[in-house]
Amino acid sequence: MNPIRHVHSRTLVLAHENIDTDRIIPARFLTTTSRAGLGQHAFQDWRYRSDGTPDPDFVLNRPDAQGCKILVAGRNFGCGSSREHAPWALLDAGLRAVISSEIADIFRANALKNGLLAITVEDAEHRFLLEHPGLELKIDLVAAEIELPDGGRFGFALEAFARHCLIEGVDQLGFLLRHDDAIRHFEEQHAA
To answer: Rounded to whole angstroms, how far apart are CA atoms 145 and 142?
Structure first.
């Protein structure tokens, strides 16, 4: 996992509410434990027509979506079944952050553990972001703030341990392994 301190990008807006994990990555693509290649199937059933060609009207297929790393999604994003493949697919599709007024708890935990910022903001801020697609945002994870093009800012809350791991670029196992010598020393001192 790469350390994350800042994400600077234009936004993509997918305003639908209650986008579940099966919509993010359909179950038929869960046959792998590899993250690579899942991005091409992110939002598969919206993104592609029945003949397999890209739907030019879908937000990820539009020319102005190229290079966008921030998805502003409708309320209750990531609901449904728990699957790590959903944040993996979004990351592999080039996204680094999802912002909504409500993100499902299990999806949010999976996202943060895998290096995808899952940020909730107040309803009024969310409405503003939904109404302004393509807005250039700067997310500062250290300050826990989102900066707007006019310099305005709004804060967001993020659990301290998840924030630390994202900034350091480690997952939970990596965090523990960094303390391997101290753990071994403790075990030696307290051996029965």
So the answer is: 8
Task: Provide the domain limits for residue 81.
Answer: 6-189
List of residues 6+ apart from 59 with CB closer than 8 A: 12, 13, 14, 65, 133
Give the chain's domain count.
Answer: 1
Cα 139 to Cα 49: distance, rounded to the nearest angstrom: 33
pLDDT at site 42 = 96
Over residues 35-74, the pLDDT tens digits come to 888 999 999 999 999 999 999 999 999 999 999 999 999 9
For residue 91, tell me if it sits in a domain.
Answer: yes
Is residue 112 assigned to a domain?
yes
Residue 1 lies in a domain: no
Q: In the structure, what pLDDT confidence band is assigned to residue 2 with cuts at 50, 70 and 90?
A: confident
CB 59, CB 117: distance < 8 Å: no
Q: Give the pLDDT confidence of 146-187 residue by residue, as tens digits.
A: 999 999 999 999 999 999 999 998 876 666 666 677 778 788
CATH number of the structural domain spanning residue 85:
3.20.19.10
Cα separation, 65 vs 71, whole angstroms: 10
- Tell me how far CA of residue 128 lies from CA of 15, 17, 84, 121, 141, in angstroms: 12, 16, 29, 11, 20
